[in-house]
Amino acid sequence: MLRLPPSLVWLTDHRGRVDGEIQRIEKYFERHRRIFEKFKELNDELVHLKATMLAIDHTLSLHEVQIDPSNIPVIYSKKHRIQLPYGELTRLIYQRIRMGNGVPVSTREINDFVILRHPFLQENDAKEGVKYESKLSRRIHHRLKNLCREGKIERHHSKTSMQQGLWSLSTLLTQGIQNPSVALEHSL
Predict the structure, then answer these.
(1) 168 within a domain of the structure (yes/no)
(2) pTM metric for this prediction
(3) Are residues 100 and 127 in the same domain?
């Protein structure tokens, strides 16, 4: 059997350790790839925004009325707005509750229905992850509460319970759809 010189043993050992570190880092990158992609996107956006701010500062310095850019207050805009046309969320909520045919519909079913009806919400959800979905869920939750307060839908769960929310159309509203004269009498 051939005996390896100590220098070659050290090199093979060292190569094995380096290979192990490379694989460990590659696995880490693969597990956290989405975070690194988001970091790159944010870094690119930051570079663009800083260039824009420098251009605005330069334009301000050219103006007759001198304004010190450091005195301009910071304004934080709502970056993650849910991009639905006006009234669309309410229409989708009504549509999903009507599909229940009188059986109360859960808040989760309404959330899923809204996301399925708008593919761009699915794309944003994939980009933003849980944060975007939770914002959409909160918006749907608030809209459901407001519709309930207005008497247009009914709550089938306790306000204080931690149970899943169940919702249906208001009995007055369903009677008005079936018999328009009933709705007219209640509105007078």
Answers:
(1) yes
(2) 0.50
(3) yes
